[in-house]
Amino acid sequence: MTLTAFARPAGKPAGARPAGSSTTTPPASPSDTRRPRGREADGLAVASFVLGLTGLLVMNILLGPVAITMALIALARSTARRGRALLGLALGIADLVVLAVLVTANGTVSWSLGG
Fold first, then answer.
1. 16 and which of 12, 31, 86, 88 could share a cystine (Cβ 3.0–4.6 Å)?
2. What does pTM read for this prediction?
């Protein structure tokens, strides 16, 4: 291992700091730039609710599992919108139940209102 000594510029005392530096401000850490986990969990709860509700009408084979996953993640991260996360979970499960009923009744994953 090699140690290298840095030469100090001529005319500056040993304890001098560069111009503009401050001793009271600590350097920014990576955690300062991250969003709080609570806001992210709240967003996941709302998104799971919206996707679960939309999944009842269209693409329930895709939106149901996504809504369930997002709701479980939001609940695991202790969201403040616990009710929305639980509704998203219930709607995601309902999406899969609707899909199962449609496949059983029609033998297809599509449905129409015209009969």
1. 12
2. 0.63
